[in-house]
Amino acid sequence: MREFVGNCRSCESPIYCNEGFLNGIVMEDKTLLCFDCSEEPNEEKEE
User: Which residues pair with 33 in a beta bridge?
Assistant: First the structure.
């Protein structure tokens, strides 16, 4: 089962939950980040 969860906060690509596995990362502020954006060097530092 594939369920839409939300959009990446950086690139706005859709993030889905596939069979119970999230295709992204939930950040501390409850926003989502796709795996592609999470691997890039981030100029914004999380506080």
Answer: 25
pTM of the model: 0.73
Q: What is the mean pLDDT of residues 36-40?
A: 85
CA dist., res. 3 & res. 26, Å (int) = 16
- Among 20, 4, 13, 18, which Cα is nearest to 34's? 13
Using DSSP, state whether 35 is helix, strand or coil. helix
Our CA angle for 28, 23, 11, nearest 5°, is 70
Task: Give the span between the Cα atoms of 35 and 12, in whole angstroms.
Answer: 12
